[in-house]
Amino acid sequence: MEIIYDGIAKINHLVAATVYFPRDFSKVFGSKIDYGDYLIYRFRKLVEVEPPANIIEFPFDYDLYDDWLKQSRGVDSEENRCLWAVEVAKNKEVLEYIKLKHPVMPREPSHEETTLFIGYVPVTTHTEVKILPEIFDKIINLFPPLPAFKRLSLLRSSGVVLLVGDSFAGMEGIQNLTEYLMDYVNRHVRIGAYDGKKVEVVKIPFRFKARNKTPDSPVFLPILICGASHDVQYCRELLVYIPDVCSCLINYLFGITKPIDYYPMIPWDEIDSFRQYCYIRSNNVVLTKRSRKFKLLTRIK
């Protein structure tokens, strides 16, 4: 038997996956972990199970488990809770009884799971452009009136905070910059640095800043959205799929007098595709279907 998580075990291809109700959860974990976080951790563990897997989910019934312990003369432990779960998963009658007794199972609060989206706005400009820090407060007006970011627990939050880089990044270091930003934001979230905030400036280290820029090569403005999964997804869709939102963002940052070409926001994991597009465009190669989505947006003059 392989123990995957407390109350979840795998034997051959069978995965017995129990879920604790709040009353039973406190008996097992005490105050070591938030209940909502437990449900999210549990879901993540099930997602990581390697196929093929026959996952059977059902509520943990402490009354039945106590009877089983007495009969087996065992002591309460993670291993015994997993052993009981496996035996129940194999017994159709007991499994059916538990599901009738507890028809509704707790589910992970995925809409509250703290999520970080990192995107980059590629900008091509032939003049030196400095980001105007005094307009950062205006940026939040591009989005619906979502609440400010608030950390609810280790893994959950409400609202969002929009984070904008204080300078441009070059294409070559994007992967390393993304890893840096992930670690930077996660550390700040853990200590509550963004609680109550809607917009924040992120200082980009010198080693990631754009240097030796050629006239037609784009530089990248980092835009990060951190907060509750549902709200982050909505804000991401506004920036990625609605050109007007991205256009307003560029206008806010640079004003409307600068000659700037820009592209829609690109999620960090699509930068390689954009790199391919830039090569194709600079070498006059016929665009592939995939690279056409990086169409240059209206020039700001």
Residues in β-strands, percent: 15-25%
Rounded average pLDDT? 84
Number of spatially distinct domains? 2
How far is the N terminus from the C terminus? Answer: 67 Å
Number of E-state strands: 12
SS field, number of helical segments:
10
The percent range for helix content is 25-40%
Shape: elongated
Radius of gyration: 25 Å
Low-confidence stretches: 284-292, 296-301
| Major sheet summary line | 6 strands, mixed
**Which structural category fits the helices and strands?**
alpha+beta
Can you write the helix and strand succession as a string? EEEHHEHHHEHEEEHEEHHEEH
Notes on the protein architecture:
This protein is an alpha+beta fold and 301 residues long. The protein folds into 2 domains: 2-101, no CATH class; 113-294, no CATH class. The chain is built from 10 helices and 12 strands. The chain has helices at residues 22-29, 35-47, 62-72, 78-90, 92-101, 136-139, 174-190, 229-241, 243-254, 271-282, and strands at 2-5, 8-11, 14-19, 54-59, 114-125, 150-151, 157-158, 160-165, 199-202, 219-228, 260-262, 266-267. Strands 5, 8, 9, 10, 11 and 12 form a 6-stranded mixed beta sheet that branches. Strands 1-2-3-4 form a 4-stranded mixed beta sheet, with helices on both faces. A hairpin with a 5-residue loop joins strand 6 (150-151) and strand 7. Residues 284-292 and 296-301 have low confidence and may be disordered.
